Amino acid sequence: MLIDANQALSHKVHKPKPIDELVLQVQQGSQRAFEQLYKKYEKRVYGLCLRLLASPEYAEDVTQEVFVQLWHKISQFQGQSQFSTWLHSVTSNIAISYLRKHKNWLQKVVSIEGCGMDEQASSMCEGLNGLDKLIVRLPERARLVFVLHAVEGYRHEEIANMLGMAVGSSKSQYHRARQLLQEWYDNE
Amino acid sequence: MNKPSFEQFLKESLEQTKEVSPKRDLWPGIERALVSHNEHAKKVSYWPKLTGVAACMVAGLLAWQVVIKQPQQNTMVDISAFFEQQKQSLLVQYEAQPALTSDWQAQLKELESAEQAVKSALQNDPENAALLKMLAQVYQQQLDLINKVHEPRWQQI
């Protein structure tokens, strides 16, 4: 009897909805469910954007863009992978595309690589752990490869495809990133 | 306190939570974008429907004109209506007036038979110019006949 009463009580307690159900509701057009989905993933998406873009302003813009596109593209999610994996993939692609669009004319003409944050700016950046503060200082290509490979777990073949570079370049950028990170870490 | 090695630092850092909070609330901007997109989508989807309805109405109107209204307003009907009116007016006008010949009504009957034959031919080919001209001539002959047999100058001779 006591067990039944506890069970009945537990049903009344508000429980967060399992993600599959939330995604399904969003796919059926529920904006309320979408807001819950946003609250659940907002920090992860923003964190990924900030590491990839090394700019809080860009990261905010892209986070919003990710969720707007997510609302329209969520029907494409068929549940073949984890939702979070799929969302991170969508986020990475939007962030990379955003970086390409926001290259200035000089970077486009002479293929100059975008630089990361300077040391002072990264130390002022709120919410980042020690490694993140170093990641955002990396030059653009090294940063993108490091975040996608070490943080997000993509293979170099996948990264090469996403960034339009050779697999060897992806590997060399990764090693370059590690060397820089170690150098900065050792000098801290 | 010993500083951990870079490898240790890297391993521990990558295991930590990857969540970072943005400084500002991003949801209102997302919500606005969704609402404005939905309104745009509504407007976009409204116009094809409206255009479709308008196209159906125009098509219906044309069909009504062609199928229902047009046969009543075709040339043969117009000609017939015009001459019938003329003919009836003359017959009423000359009703009290004696005719010069007694067989004029037989002649009129022949012309009316010719009129019916031409009308039958026009049922199959309503806008045939030669048949329409023939019909007009048959009607004109009927009017001429009625006029001639009742005209005073003929009676005075």
TrEMBL record, chain A:
Coiled-coil segments on the chain, per record: none
GO molecular function: DNA binding; sigma factor activity
Protein name as it appears in the record: ECF RNA polymerase sigma factor SigW
Native organism: Pseudoalteromonas holothuriae
Domain RNA polymerase sigma factor 70 region 4 type: 131-181
This protein's UniProt keywords: Sigma factor, Transcription, Transcription regulation
A GO biological-process term: DNA-templated transcription initiation
Similarity field: Belongs to the sigma-70 factor family. ECF subfamily.
Keyword field contains Transmembrane: no
Residue ranges of domain RNA polymerase sigma-70 region in the record: 37-103
Superkingdom of the source species: Bacteria
Automatic annotation (TrEMBL), chain B:
Top-level taxon of the source organism: Bacteria
Protein's recorded name: Uncharacterized protein
The organism of origin for this protein: Pseudoalteromonas holothuriae
